[in-house]
Specification:
Helix content: 40-55%
Largest sheet: 6 strands, antiparallel
Strand order of the largest sheet: 1-2-11-10-7-8
Structural class: alpha+beta
Low-confidence stretches: 1-22, 237-241
């Protein structure tokens, strides 16, 4: 590097790129500022006076800025200034005074710039983190963890937020034991943000009441439809006419028969995994529109009945699972991925499914995922 070359400011690696580093890569990157300072000292000692190590000392605090805390970045900047001052003092006899002052000023200005960059990065990190904390608290309030056993069935639920993290989603689930058996709903409200959560709360509240009172799933679905109509009526603007909710309702009767009833309103079909590794996709016999679209078209709801043998697992999920894409744009197919596999309990099934989706998409999902699984234990 010849004298007169400006300091290399780099391109300021963004936080998203830094977050994708492997632990080894991040560890090596954290050592880079020290390597640059030591390298600058070695470079100055090994080269003629016409060469300068200022770019090394300038780069050190810039590298530290997105990686370190503010005190650590300041310490790196002081070390870079000290290194440059030491080099200038060592070569003061053979170096032009103006060049020495220019080099020190250059490192100083870049060090100040690095401190400013660090501050901006930390502020941008803190805001999504605080929003994410609020979002997670809201989701926990809306979607409390269900009991591990209900009506003789093992139960597990999971909620996975999208990689953006700052937007609250409308994915939801609810499950409860009623006089009619164990009833559940898994659904997805159109849209994002607090309005989607508000609509999800309306659906969950209506479901919990209707599940206790109504004799059939069809009647429960009718109550949900009316609840969403009332919710849409009080909203203004576009959402009043275009809001809808995909949902699947299910019931395991209280009489102990190995029967499952499912009513699907435009939602991804649940999967039934047999104890032998077999898999059945519970597609509705007659497709139906999502909830909230009764003004577009309406017809009588009809639930489908399936055999639910002992030892089998039933899993429900939102479209964050089925719409997860890999690098080639291919959608994740849960039926294909789970067929032939065995799981000891609902929690293990959901954990494996979430891990598989993350592996398929190369990280956190692009959309929220709500998942619910039931198991009829052996011998029941």
């Amino acid at each position: 590097m010849l004298r007169g070359d400006g300091p290399s400011t780099g391109d300021g690696e963004r936080r998203a790129r830094r977050d994708r580093m492997s632990p080894l890569g991040r560890s090596l990157a954290c050592w880079l500022p020290a390597v640059l300072i030591v390298g600058g000292l070695a470079f100055d000692l090994a080269t003629p006076p016409s060469y300068t190590a200022a770019p090394f000392f300038s780069a050190a605090p810039l590298v530290a800025a997105p990686l370190f805390s503010l005190p650590a970045t300041a310490l790196t900047a002081l070390a870079a200034m000290a290194g440059e001052s030491l080099v200038v003092t060592y070569r003061s006899a053979a170096q032009n005074t103006h060049e020495s002052v220019t080099e020190i000023a250059t490192v100083f200005v870049v060090a100040l710039l690095a401190l400013a960059i660090n501050r901006v990065v930390r502020m941008s990190d803190a805001h999504p983190a605080s929003v994410r904390d609020v979002s997670e608290a809201a989701q926990r309030a809306v979607l409390p963890a269900p009991p591990e056993r209900l009506g003789g069935l093992a139960v597990a639920a999971r909620y996975v937020g999208a990689r953006a993290g700052a937007r609250i989603g409308g994915d939801f689930y609810a499950v409860q034991e009623t006089p009619h058996g164990v009833r559940l709903i898994v659904g997805d409200v159109r849209g994002k943000g607090l309005e989607a959560v508000e609509a999800a709360v309306v659906v969950i509240g209506a479901f919990r009441e209707a599940a206790e009172q109504e004799a059939t799933l069809e009647a429960v679905a009718g109550r949900l439809e009316r609840a969403l109509q009332r919710e849409g009526g009080r909203r203004a603007g576009l959402d009043q006419y275009e809001g809808f909710t995909t949902a699947v309702l299910a019931e395991v009767p209280a009489d102990g028969r190995p029967v499952l009833r499912v009513l699907n309103r435009g939602h991804p079909a649940p999967l039934l995994l047999g104890p032998d590794g077999g898999l059945c996709e519970l597609m509705p016999a007659v497709p139906a529109l999502p909830l909230g679209l009764s003004e577009v078209a309406s017809w009588p709801d009809r639930s489908d009945e399936s055999f639910f043998p002992a030892g089998s697992l039933l899993v429900f999920f939102t479209d964050g699972v089925t719409e997860a894409r890999d690098l080639r744009g291919r959608f994740y197919d849960p039926a294909d991925k789970l067929r032939g596999r065995r799981f000891p309990d609902p929690g293990s099934l959901l954990d494996a499914l979430i891990e598989d989706v993350a592996r398929h998409s190369g990280g956190a999902p692009a959309d929220d995922m709500a998942l619910l699984a039931l198991q009829r234990p052996m011998g029941e």
